[in-house]
Design brief:
There is one protein chain. The chain is an alpha+beta fold. The chain is 47% helix and 12% strand. The chain is built from 65 helices and 44 strands. Helix 44 packs antiparallel against helix 45, helix 49 packs parallel to helix 57 and helix 62 runs antiparallel to helix 65. It is flat.
Length: 1899
Amino acid sequence: MLSVWHSRQFHTYTWFIPMAFSAVAGTFDHALSLSCVVICRHFQKMKCPRCNTLCEEGQQFCLRCNAIVEEEIEPGSLKDVTYDLGRSGAAEDTLPMDSSSDEEDFHDASDQFLDLKLGEDEDTCQRVQVDGLEVEPAQQMEAAVEELSSPGEITVDYVGSDSVSLSWLPFDPAWRYKLTYSCYTQREILSIQGSNSTDVEGLYPGTEYTFSISSVTDDRNQRASVPMSVYTKPVPPEKIKIDHVSSESVSLSWDKRVGVPEACLVTCSCNGEDVQKITTESNTLTFSSLSPGVKYSFHVATVLKNGTQSKSAVTYVCSKTHLESLLLDLGLEKHYIEKLALSTVLQIDEKTVTDEPAQTLSALPWTFLKRLMMVNVTARSVKCISSGGEASCDASFCNIDLDLESLVDNMDSSNVVNPLDIVTALFLCSNSFLQQEMVLKMSMCQFSVPLLLPNCDTKQCMMMIWAMRDIVKKFRPHSLADPRGFVEDRIVLSDLPMVSFVRLGECSLSKSQILNKLLSNPQQYHDTFVHHDMECGDSPRRISNGLVEISWYLPSGKKNIDIFGEAVAVTNLRGDISSFETQYSFLCQTSAAVFVFFDNLDNKYKLLTSQHTKAQLFLVGNPQSKSFSIDALKKTAAELNLKKSNIILKTKQMNDADFVKNLRNTVGEVIKSSYSKMPLEQMAEVAHELGILVDEDCQECQIAKQNADAITSKINDTPQYKESQLPLQGQIWKELARLEKEECRLRKAGEMNIETYKSELQAEKRQLREQQRRYDMSEAMTCFIHAISSTGLERSYFLKWMRMNLDNLSRKNLSGLRELYKEKSQNSSENQDEIADLDRQISNSSLGTEHFLREMGQLYESAVLLSETEESRQQLQHLPRLCAELLLDGFPLELVDGDASNIPLRWVSDVLHQLNVLVQPKNKIRVVTVLGVQSTGKSTLLNTMFGVQFAVSSGRCTRGAFMLLIKVKEDFKKELNCDFVVIIDTEGLKSPELAQLDDSFEHDNELATLVVGLSDVTIINIAMENSTEMKDILQIVVHAFLRMKEVGKKPKCQFVHQNVADVSAHDKNMRDRKMLLEQLNEMTQAAASMENKEENKIFTDVMEYNPETGNWYIPGLWHGNPPMAPVNAGYSESVYEFKKNMIEVFQNCEASGNNIMDFLEWTKSLWNAVKYENFIFSFRNSLVADAYMKLCIEFNKWEWSVRKHMHTWMTSAEARISNFGTIAMKSQTGDERDFLCQLKSAASTELVKWEKTILDNLTKYYEQTEGHVYLVERYREDFANSTKSMKREMENSIMSKLEAAFEIRKGMKKLDTIKKNHTAVMEEKVLKLLEDCRKSHSERSEKDLDREFEKVWEETVQELSFTGLKKRDIVSDVFNQLRSNLKQKGGSVNEKLNKEKLEDHGKEPFIVAPQGFFKRLLKGLYMDEHTRKTQAMADNLIEICKQFVNENIQNKTDYNDTYIQEIIHMIEEKLNANKNLETSDKFEVSIKLYICGFASRAFQSMHEQFICDNNPCLCLEQFKGKYLANFKDLFNGQDQCRKKSVEFTNLCLKPAVEVYVASSLGPEIVDEMLTGQNAFQFSSRTFFQYSILKQLLSEFNFANYVSYTCHYEDFVKNWILGEMLKRFSQGKKMFELEDCQLKGIIRVITEAITKVQTNKNGNIKELIQDICRELGEKLVIPQDALEATMILNNSNQEQFSYWLKTSVVEMEQSLREEFRNATDVSKKLEQLRIKPQNVLFTRVFGCGKQCPFCKSPCEAGGEAHNDHCASIHRPQGLGRYRFDGSKELVTDICSSSVFSESSFRCYETNGKYHPFKKYRDIFPNWHIPADPSIQASDYWKYVMAKFNKEFSKEYDACPGDIPLSWKLITKEQAEKSLRESFSITNALSPTVSPAHSSASNPF
């Protein structure tokens, strides 16, 4: 039986499962044998994911834990239904059925449930029929309920948090009871049978439930009982969280059930005692007014409305200390343990360039640090600005209501932190080196700095001696005897009196403010100490009480300005001394005087008397204070025995100025009378006695100090110490540097053989290195290397100690020398030698850490020359890595040794290599360099911008160039496109320290060129007061920029004008900027003239410079008079703006992609070039070379694509011309001339299109960011010109070929017409004979047919006219053209021509006669240089013309006048290219007669042979057999299909296919050579040269070398041909290429046959004509053979097509076999129309120019390049140069000679001597760079040393004087030098694809 109750208030479905039942209409039978109740819940339920509580359908939140719940289906669950009151009127849900039940078969509930209304909302009665039972209407049920008696009182037996036990009376077992219970979110009904008690479960804790029981009869009538209410027990809140902890407050939160009205009692306890109790209905609570650093427990209990309270949930938390709380607010909590490092603060990030004010407290420390690092005096004025501050301010102005209360109370201190707290927090969270930097910058800003740093947690303080170690002060005390003298010393070492100011109790006077006034001039007030009237100064101090600050007053020597005549230290204790007795005791024992500020001394004076004090005690009070007691003051004064002068009171009559004056006088007297002076360093002993920590006491610092002292304590005499302990960098290193430059500049070679001189220099270098190696490592260097090999922290301490110790020594040593220098400089004209000597002494007395690192580099450089197995080398192998680690730690690396003016390249290279290893793959860098006149604040500018530590104000200025790394923060790397910024600081140009040296200007030029070349941005620092020196520096800088532009770099430039104070400087200096630009333009022109680059007219030609944005005006550094002047706020602000601009410049820089290894490569190549005087013409760089080579390779690919395409086009055009006027032409409109014009126009269009394609490719190539393309920007125009030149050359060639083809076609047309007429007549006669024979009807034998045919043939031949082509006198035609060409040469030439016969010329070898009578007489014995060069040119020209003639003869065509025109054009082109030989008109006539002579005879023979081959009679006769056979076939009625198809294939198609394959094969062979196995050799001219030279070395045959050097062009042609024969003679590559072309054309033929088959209306002749038309653009079909095939042809069209296809297949097989069996590659190459060897020769031979000295071939890319260049030059003797007098072969190598003082003479100099250095005056188009290394020319040195005698014999000279070092070169070394010269790496093999290869080109 199924009972269903349904109402809008609740859904309850109850299933009764009886053991047995009976059905009666309208009633239920309750006679049940089982006394139990089974309650079934609605099946649709939801489970809480957090606490697994089952919740109701539609319920969004769990009532227990407030979690979001989700729905789930649980079939068969038998529990109560909970209805969500929010879902009234919900639709009926579907009940899931258990189909597996064995008891009953339940139907779908959605079909059987009927709504039954149990209220008053519905009038309709409804019934539901369930398994045949009818349920009564609702109205009958209500009536029945009234008749029942209700149960009595309900008893609560048990109450829990989620369950209740109930019972009731009376009880009747026959009754069924209905229990209803509900709360405000839940309503449930239970049906109970046979029991009067129940347990109700699943209740909500702490909730009031209402229960009622009603009895239900068997007829379902019921009566309600009296309800009762019960609260379930509450549970404590869950998941208590601590949301925030500070020093005085704790915030809690806990989970609260949604909608449950309950309160919570929260108790805060400490040590078992309740501190605070708070009841709240919220689930969050904050306890305030707690004690800092105390552990508290928080008990949270739930409280119900009836007062019931749950158990408590407990959590524990310790309140923050004041320090922890502040660090948390400032975001520094993690740095309290992991200290902030200087490198972290200095790294560049987005905050570096943003000016947003601090929005949160955590931004305040970083804002302070950012400003402090920029030495901004506003650094302490940092305040958190809330985002709504501005809006609220605006609103207050708009508000018309006067709200004075808000004005009074409007003090939000939540975002305010006292500056002293920020300073203290940062010092506590910083490591020692950041502390030191902060103190240094604070001191520059004239801020007080921490002396004793308190830690309010540990109640200890730290004495900050290490932090102050770096402060160096310079001042002039009045006690100095010399009024111009000064004292310069580290402040911690200075013996100064100290005056301390403290406070006892409350004080109405502002101690700090009074101190500021005390230390400031009235005209120059400065807030040294923070006071309450400063921004945020009135904010309560949270952690800085107990801080002792120190500052100094230092006199300037000007009595009218100085407050005190002597220096004094002033300290200030923050807070009451009664709270900080330790600090007070320290001050009492270390100070000369202690000033105690007070208001009331009652009961406090004992503190003053209890201290053991060495200091004078002064009491400073304010009688105007209410708490002031004169009695207490008297008592205290008596106790302390104080005099009246020791008491200072500010009376009513005294204003602030008078009071300060009075105080100042007192302090002044103390200073004068005080003998208690103690350096800060000594105060550490007092600190130790008082238990005060000292920052230098850490173990690492002490060990480092010991190590540093062990080295520096032994320095007494600096020059002597350097000689004994740092010997390698002394005179030996300077001499090595001099020799290195001399190797390049060769200034002192004199008359010596250059190579011998260089060998001697190398020997000297080896000896010097040997001397270096003989030195044992000194004790000092052993200690130094050991110390820097320690851990990071200890190493940093050691280097800092070393720097400070050495600076102290240098300062003492240099001060005397500088004074002497000043004296001598006043009479500079008289004391030049002494001044120069003093310069050297100053240089020698300078000793810094860089000298030790320099020595380390020299140790390494001398060691690496040893073999790798040497122990001494292995011991030093780790040094570069050590130095790289130092770089990463922020220490500078010396790039250029300022003393020797040299770079230890091997050392620097290996250090940078190791650096690259350490940082990979994050190795991208940007480089910024500063250049400027000495002592104009360059290093200070960099320190201010980037916080970097270069050597400034340390007793000596920066010498040389130093590089330093700054990290870029991870999130800013993408913006800057780099991982590090490299800062390069240089020795000042125009340095007075170097002014007396001979090469100072040269030194400046070298330095400027190097650093400008290395930088992305160059800062030119100009001090406006040094206008004369400014011009000098600008001249140097312009030279450097011009040189960089020439080598492919165009760095950005920023001019910084220092010491410009006016706020309107930028506008006022507009005229100055204009003048500056004019000066720069002037200097650019002068520099360009000196560097032979006159095309650079203005400054912006050589670099990116905008006068408006490229000039920055920086005011003076100091605000006021040093030493008490703080840094000018305008200075730091201007530098900050400049820094922001610099970062923007970096961001806008092109992505150079420079990494550390690129930087190293630039360093090497720039320095190598700098060592040569003529920089532009000595620069070579592998990065530039690699970029150039890649461009060459790409350009060669583009060029070949064009040439190949145009060859294919030309082949097609020639085929169309040959077929013009024949049946093979598809469409013919107009005459021949029109068709020619069409083809010419089409050719021009194609060439223009391809020219644009290449130029577009060039543009795209330069737009890419990879491959350093910006470095080869200057070659863009060369390649563009080469493209245009190629287009012109190809256009001329194609037009000439088209003209020639048409002329030939015109001649053939007449011949074809004659042949065609003869064929037609013969066909007609044969057909008539055939008709006559058939009419006779008589049997005829074969002989009869032969006889009849012969008779008709003879008769017809007799009738025909065989005039043929007329024979021409080619020799006369050629002579006439030659006369016409030479007509304009004048009468003498014409007269000579009239006497000459052309046929007599060109038979004997052409000999050039020497010029001059005497030379002609001796011509058999003597040949001068001019004659030899002219003869070589003539021989080359004759060879080229002979080749042209032979190629035309091979074509077997008739002669055309264009041939001789082309030859004359070739002669004139050659003569123009060799104008320098200044050949005469007579020579031109002779060479033209000679060449035209042999050419005319050859063309005459060709013409006659052509007439013979094309005799119409012979042509007709050769087809006589075909006519006879066709006649017989037709007479006998035989099918001709197969026969004719074979004839057509063999006579017409096969010759055409053979020609097609031959014409297509050439480009394919070239392609194979360029992309196949030998691609490397032909990818560029440089690789080609490398391949040849390597092969020559491996074969090492003298004859080959002679051929290569003397007959370069012939050698190259033969070499290329040999490579091709080698490539194609092996394997079947040639056959594969032929077969590929064959397959292609056979496919075309087959497709043509298939296409024309569809037209079945025509005859067989038309079919053949259609096929020929389809093939007309590819094949040239012989016309006579075609005509012979078509006559007498009666074939069936379909059958003919079938047999024709078969014949084509057979032809393909036949040709394939022929190709396969033809193994003679050379013969095939000769027969090709396009000679691949010639194409490759043109590609790699280039312009063909050779070095005028050594004959090395030019390798420059493109055809239209301006400069010729070669990667490797040879000894000039190989170019036939001999020494005058001795006639020995010259061993000098031109790449060395052009930088020497030597001279040369040759034909071009008219036999006069000319300096090698100015070789470009004679050979302006040749660029001969310096060798990248001494070993670069080892290849040719080896060759000449081995073949010296052979070459001398060949050149008719004496053997050269070979230097000894050449004879020691091995073959392996020669090959290695070859690889290095061409930049061929080991990874690059000859099989590498050209696209991925890397090589160099010389510059």
